[in-house]
């Protein structure tokens, strides 16, 4: 198979490095010093499960050079997904399969603006990893895994083919019985902690210790469940309880990637997290006051970060 990993950050870098160990042709889309280091030395993953190193068949920032992919795995942030899909569109084929792994619940919808629905899967991943230095990914928590499936939840031959691919690469994976529920389950966790973390600028332990902030997290989660149920997603109070067991088990110094982006003045996934909840709740006529508070308080910061980023990209 020709497999394209679009975005070689923490997610794409880890899973791309795993896939590059296999017999398949793996292409990395990366940029800058990270790309140059990968071209020269391959990619190294420093992992709590054991370090490893691999080389892709091709690493480039020029889509004109890629072989037409059979499978595209998107490793960019959710706010970058539309641009990535737009850039990639001229270089794929009618049989190409697209697997988004971004946080958020509308990634498949975004891809449908550019590609036919029957080429798009649903997916998510669980890991904590980041670029430590050019060509080096640091994996610091969790046994990384990918959950994926057809949008209609049918166990097709191509789903089994991708499962076999992940098995060959040694990637923990799960074919979901209900991929939409699985995506919303992760969204319930990550959205509950990310925006409030960005607003308070403290790690999860400090939010747990504050009775007021802990209650705010609970209210955030309940509002997300209300929205999910309005959209026909099978979430309930048991899922909230599960999320808070995970929150309570987190290292007290943990921070979410979106929180770190907000704190460091980078464009973040705010719009696809709390912003999505606010906008969709308005359509469903659901009150989400806590998500609205978080979103509106962070929005000026987000707009400033995107403006600065746009200026830098034009230079």
Automatic annotation (TrEMBL):
E.C. no: 1.1.1.169
Say if the entry is tagged with keyword Cell cycle.
no
What reactions does this protein catalyze? (R)-pantoate + NADP(+) = 2-dehydropantoate + NADPH + H(+)
- Which residue intervals define the domain Ketopantoate reductase C-terminal in the entry? 178-299
Q: List UniProt keywords, sorted A-Z.
A: NADP, Oxidoreductase, Pantothenate biosynthesis
Q: One cellular component GO annotation, for this chain's record?
A: cytoplasm
Please give the coiled-coil regions recorded for this protein.
none
Instruction: Give the record's pathway.
Output: Cofactor biosynthesis; (R)-pantothenate biosynthesis; (R)-pantoate from 3-methyl-2-oxobutanoate: step 2/2
Q: Which InterPro entries has this protein been placed in?
A: 6-PGluconate_DH-like_C_sf, 6PGD_dom2, ApbA, KPA_reductase, KPR-Related, KPR_N, NAD(P)-bd_dom_sf
One of the Pfam families matching this protein, by short name: ApbA
Domain of life, per lineage = Bacteria
Q: Which GO terms describe its molecular function?
A: 2-dehydropantoate 2-reductase activity
Q: A GO BP term, please?
A: pantothenate biosynthetic process
Q: Which residues form the Ketopantoate reductase N-terminal domain?
A: 3-152
Asked if the keyword Oxidoreductase belongs to this entry, the reply reads yes
The record's section on PANTHER family has: 2-DEHYDROPANTOATE 2-REDUCTASE, PROBABLE 2-DEHYDROPANTOATE 2-REDUCTASE
Summarizing the function annotation, the protein's role is: Catalyzes the NADPH-dependent reduction of ketopantoate into pantoic acid.
Family of the protein in this entry: Belongs to the ketopantoate reductase family.
Q: What is this protein called?
A: 2-dehydropantoate 2-reductase
Lineage of the organism: Bacteria, Pseudomonadati, Bacteroidota, Flavobacteriia, Flavobacteriales
């Amino acid at each position: 198979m020709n497999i394209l990993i679009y975005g070689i950050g923490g997610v794409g870098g880890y899973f791309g490095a795993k896939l590059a160990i296999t017999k398949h042709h793996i292409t990395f889309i990366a940029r800058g010093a990270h790309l140059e280091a990968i071209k020269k030395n391959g990619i190294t993953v420093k992992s709590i499960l054991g370090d490893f190193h691999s080389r892709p068949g091709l690493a480039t920032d020029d889509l004109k050079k890629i072989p037409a992919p059979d499978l595209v795995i998107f490793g960019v942030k959710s706010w970058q997904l539309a641009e990535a899909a737009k850039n990639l569109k001229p270089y794929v084929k009618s049989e190409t399969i697209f697997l988004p792994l971004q946080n958020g619940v509308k990634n498949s919808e975004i891809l449908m603006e550019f590609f036919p629905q029957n080429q798009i899967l649903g997916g998510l991943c669980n890991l904590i990893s980041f670029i430590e230095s050019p060509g080096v990914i640091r994996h610091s928590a969790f046994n990384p895994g990918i959950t994926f499936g057809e949008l209609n939840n049918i166990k097709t031959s191509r789903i089994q083919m991708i499962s076999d691919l992940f098995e060959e690469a040694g990637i923990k994976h799960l074919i979901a019985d209900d991929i939409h529920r699985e995506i919303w389950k992760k969204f319930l966790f990550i959205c509950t902690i990310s925006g409030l973390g960005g607003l308070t600028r403290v790690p999860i332990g400090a939010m747990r210790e504050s009775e007021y902030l802990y209650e705010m997290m609970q209210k955030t989660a309940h509002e997300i469940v209300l929205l999910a149920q309005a959209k026909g997603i099978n979430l309930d109070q048991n899922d909230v309880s599960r999320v808070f067991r995970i929150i309570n088990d987190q290292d007290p110094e943990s921070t979410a990637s979106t929180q770190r982006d907000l704190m460091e003045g980078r464009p973040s996934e705010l719009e696809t997290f709390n912003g999505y909840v606010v906008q969709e709740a308005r359509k469903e006529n659901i009150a989400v006051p806590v998500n609205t508070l978080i979103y509106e308080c962070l929005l000026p910061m987000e707009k400033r970060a995107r403006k600065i980023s746009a200026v830098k990209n034009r230079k």
